[in-house]
Amino acid sequence: MTWLVVLAIGAGSYLFRVGPLLLLRRGGLSDHSDRLIRHAGTAAITALIVVSATGAAAGGMAVPTIVAMAVGTVLAARGASMVQLLVVGGSLYAAAAVTVGLLTA
């Protein structure tokens, strides 16, 4: 029974991913549709970051979260790449978390 569920989920996932490719082969997206989904990936990543940041800030790590988010926002506004945002933001978060940990210990 477990394998049946695994195969069904695998088939559904495959169809979910291949479906748009098969449908778009017949005709392209309209300009309106293209504008609607152009930034969907960025919006999804932003939503994940916001949820993660609010959870971290609620868990007592407000200062490192605010520092990393502020610097990340400035870098994003200046056109930095996603890799740069992750490296700089993660490094600043780690440094601020260590500093806060040492100051409160």
Brief descriptors of the model:
single chain, mainly alpha, 2 domains
Q: Main beta sheet, described? A: none
What portion of residues is helical? over 70%
Q: How widely separated are the two ends?
A: 52 Å
- Structure classification: mainly alpha
The backbone outline, from C-alpha atoms, is flat
Radius of gyration: 20 Å
Count of distinct strands? 0
**Approximately how much beta-strand content do the residues carry?**
under 5%
Structurally, the number of domains stands at 2
Helix/strand order, N-terminal first: HHHHH
Assembly context of the chains: single chain
Which stretches are poorly predicted, pLDDT < 50 over at least 5 residues?
A: none
Number of helices: 5
Describe this structure as you would to a colleague.
The protein has two domains: 1-38; 39-105, no CATH class. Helix content is 86%, strand content 0%. The radius of gyration is 20 Å and the shape is flat. It is an all-alpha fold and 105 residues long.
Give the helices and strands, then pairings.
Blueprint: H1 2-26, H2 31-37, H3 40-58, H4 62-77, H5 82-104
Helix pairs in contact: 3-4, 4-5
